[in-house]
Amino acid sequence: MVAVHDGGGSGRRPPPPAPPAQTIDVEPHMIPELAATFAHQAEILSKEIERARRDLKIQQPWLGDPVSAEATRLFNKHFIDDALSLVNVLTQLVGEYKAHRAALIAAAKHYNMTEQTNAALLERGLEP
Question: What is the reported pTM?
Answer without folding.
Answer: 0.69
